[in-house]
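Meet today's protein:

…
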Amino acid sequence: MANEHEPSSSSAQQPNFQVRIPLEWEEDDEVPIVYANQVLISHAGPEFFIVFGTVVPPLNTSEIPDSFKIRPQVRVVVSRDAMGSVVQALTDNLRRFQDAQAKARARKDNG
């Protein structure tokens, strides 16, 4: 017989609920802007490593080397839980960019 003062096992469990709190990006002019024309993505364990870099081709075509060195500009580590959201955000933004470019070309062709 259960003691009336002791909670039963089902009432002792914490309620299962979620709280949604909106996240807002702050404006920060101090964050550097870095140009990249190369990207390397790898993963190890639970993280993805994204390295953005630049390569500058020679101005003189007679100076083309056997290989170019890519200078890393910034390394970003993304958790595996967040990587799907990163990929989705990149895909969505690329699609919006492509749609806007197509609309601009159509206006140019029709105008």
